[in-house]
Amino acid sequence: MEFNPNNNVVKLCLQGMGMEEKGKPEEASKLFLQAWNEATYDFEKFISAHYVARHQKSVVSKLEWLETALQFALKINDDTVKSAFPSLYSNIAKCYEDLSDSDKARKNYELATLFKDKPSDKGPFYHGTKADLQFGDLLIAGGSSNYKPELKMNHIYFTALVNGAGLAAALAKGNERERVYIVEPTGSFENDPNVTDKKFPGNPTRSYRSQAPLKIVGEATDWVRQTPEEIQRWREKLANNKGEIIN
To answer: Among residues 124, 127, 115, which one has the least CA distance to residue 82?
Structure first.
């Protein structure tokens, strides 16, 4: 299963988040509930229930929706949703804490801690760029950010979604052709904190970073290319993003 920003339920959740940013919680709540009503499979139900939960007026209702989101996430139980378990269990624990149920609160806090391990994703992994590289070459940290050229990056970034790497290649600096390399981490890696739990719960884009080099072991050629208009929209969106990069 691959996270798809063009999915209609995902789009409704994005619109709801936009309403939240504009200080319109009632409109946001309606959009999230519409997303839930239109959800047809487990991932859509997990995502939409997560957002419906945070607009509930009572702790009991919030808990019910969070546990609904968790049940769908557990049914999926793959690398698209595993990174969401710590925050889901923590939020559920907080609800039980507010309801003075200390036993269930403690149990869920313990589960949140249990799932805070390193990513379990086994790949394959991809890195998008416009650089012409050779198999066996090492990609290392210290390059300039594609989004803030003045920032030297302390990590090297990669993803398990080939289309995500293709988008990164399209947005990379340079006039050379877009390349998506298959890479192997040579050391430990972590969820990219710039996306994990920032918009969607967990790390559905399966984006990671490492301070250790990435070894190029192949090249992918089959991914969804963005149109020039889509690339321009992405560039404008990134240019208007005022958030700080966690480096």
So the answer is: 115
Domain extent listing, the chain: 8-114, 125-239
List, in sequence order, every residue forming a beta bridge with 215; answer none if it has no partner: 138, 184
The total of other beta-carbon atoms located within 10 Å of residue 142's CB is 10
Q: Give the predicted TM-score (pTM) of the model.
A: 0.80
Sign of the four-CA dihedral 2, 221, 153, 173: negative
Contact yes or no for 210/189 (Cβ under 8 A) = yes
Block means of pLDDT (10 residues each) for the chain, 247 residues, are 82 93 94 97 96 96 98 89 92 97 97 84 93 93 68 87 91 87 95 88 92 96 84 75 62
CB 182 within 8 A of CB 126: yes
Strand order in the sheet with 156-159: 138-139, 214-220, 179-185, 125-129, 156-159, 207-210, 190-191
Q: How many Å apart are CA 45 and CA 48, to the nearest integer?
A: 5
125-239 topology per CATH: ADP-ribosylation fold (3.20.170)
Q: Under 8 Å CB-to-CB from 188, ≥6 apart: which residues?
A: 118, 210, 212
Domain 8-114 fold:
1.25.40
